[in-house]
Specification:
Elements: H1 5-23, H2 34-44, E1 46-48, H3 53-67, E2 78-93, E3 99-114, E4 120-133, H4 138-172
Parallel strand pairs: 1-2
Antiparallel strand pairs: 2-3, 3-4
Helix pairs in contact: 2-4, 3-4
Length: 173
């Protein structure tokens, strides 16, 4: 009987958890609740400013893919200004002072600005840390470095979308 107690307790906990989370005001960001459509509409009303250099363009395109389901807004309510910074650090130093691995740190600082007033309504930053191999072939290093940037920029876009979704979900309540 004692060995069945943990299973029974787990089953009871899993059964009661949705009711407990609902009682405390927990609502999933992604789902079919009515406020989710309001969050999606709010994201669709954000104009994304151009971001400098090629990696900034890739980040902006990733954000556009995540924000706009029915095309870009004609009369956006908000403007998103993003500043992107990247640093690379060599790791895995061998005896001959060559590196075999590198770490890429990407940081996007961004502000959500209400267009009608020019007021910053939300300001924060997102980070992504990815690593890649430094190989003997120069072409292979370029390919792995670009893949690391692409992975990092995708993570940043996902994080920015999540943070802004949470902001709009809290703002709508």
């Amino acid at each position: 009987m004692a060995q069945h107690f943990p299973r029974l307790a787990t089953a009871l906990l899993l059964t009661l958890m949705p009711a407990v989370l609902g009682a405390c005001g927990f609502k999933p960001v992604y789902g079919t609740a009515s406020h989710d459509s309001a969050v999606g509409a709010a994201l669709a009303n954000v104009q994304i400013d151009p971001i400098v250099d090629r990696n900034g363009q890739v980040l902006r395109n990733n954000l556009i893919d995540r924000f706009y389901t029915d095309g870009r807004p004609a009369n956006a309510r908000y403007r998103l200004a993003v500043a992107l910074a990247a640093t690379e650090e060599e790791l895995g130093i061998q005896k001959d002072a060559t590196a075999t691995r590198a770490r890429l740190r990407l940081q996007a600082s961004y502000e959500l600005i209400e267009i009608s007033t020019g007021q910053v309504v939300y300001r924060t930053f997102s980070r992504s840390i990815v690593s890649f191999n430094l190989l003997d072939s120069q072409f292979a290093v370029l390919a792995t470095r670009q893949d690391a940037y692409d992975r990092g920029l995708t993570e940043l876009a996902d994080d920015i979308r999540t943070r802004l979704s949470l902001y709009f979900a809290r703002d709508k309540q």
